[in-house]
Design goal:
The chain has six helices and five strands. By secondary structure, the protein is an alpha+beta fold. It has a five-stranded mixed β-sheet, sandwiched between helices. α3 (102-109) runs antiparallel to α6 (157-172) and α4 (119-132) crosses α6. The longest helix is centred in the last third of the chain and has 16 residues, at 157-172. The relative contact order is 0.14.
Length: 183
């Protein structure tokens, strides 16, 4: 590689970009370094600390958010890649301060969390799973889809129970999902 080409690539890697995105239905316009990860933008620039940083390699799933309706690992996405996108974090599941969403309430009721570190990612994956399957889930499907999210505490049994419970609510009223009254 020639010296000037290499210098140009290094300069581009250090650029700051203006990006605009919708996060939890709120418009944000900000600046992001070329190498800033979405998880860092959410946590450090936007103050949305519900998205947890675990492995930073896309393995554990604790940083899962929805990008344009698809569950994604925010530690694997550059902030500049979501320019113009709609992002939903665990904070975006509630409409009223202090009132849990259907799925969050199901996690609480079924004791589907212990230390809580994996919970935001589990919740975001499960919301996406319930919506994609239109609430038509069984234990085997849930376990299969949760394989990419690691939890050291729960053994997953109660997470599966919570997902099944929330899927029942989805099937009864998909229009109000997931912000309807707690179950």
């Amino acid at each position: 590689m020639s010296g000037s080409k290499q210098s140009t690539d290094i300069l581009r890697a250090g650029e700051i970009h203006r990006i605009s995105l919708q996060v939890n239905e709120q418009h944000h316009s900000t600046h992001a370094h070329t190498r800033t990860l979405l998880v860092d933008l959410l946590r450090h620039d936007l103050g949305l600390t519900g998205t947890h940083v675990g492995c930073e390699h896309g393995v554990c799933g604790s940083c899962t958010v929805q990008v344009n309706g698809s569950a994604q690992r925010s530690c694997l996405i550059l902030a500049v890649q979501v320019d113009g996108a709609q992002v939903q974090t665990v904070e975006g599941l509630t409409q009223t301060e202090g009132v849990l969403s259907v799925l969050q309430e199901a996690f609480k009721r079924h004791h589907a969390l212990q230390c809580g570190f994996c919970t935001p990612g589990m919740v975001m994956v499960t919301v996406n799973m319930i919506e994609r399957h239109e609430g038509q889930l069984d234990e085997q499907t849930i376990r299969h889809e949760l394989e990419g999210n690691l939890c050291r505490c729960t053994g997953y049994h109660n997470i599966v129970k919570a997902a099944l419970s929330a899927a029942d609510v989805y099937r009864s009223d998909p229009v109000a999902w997931p912000q309807q009254s707690p179950i």
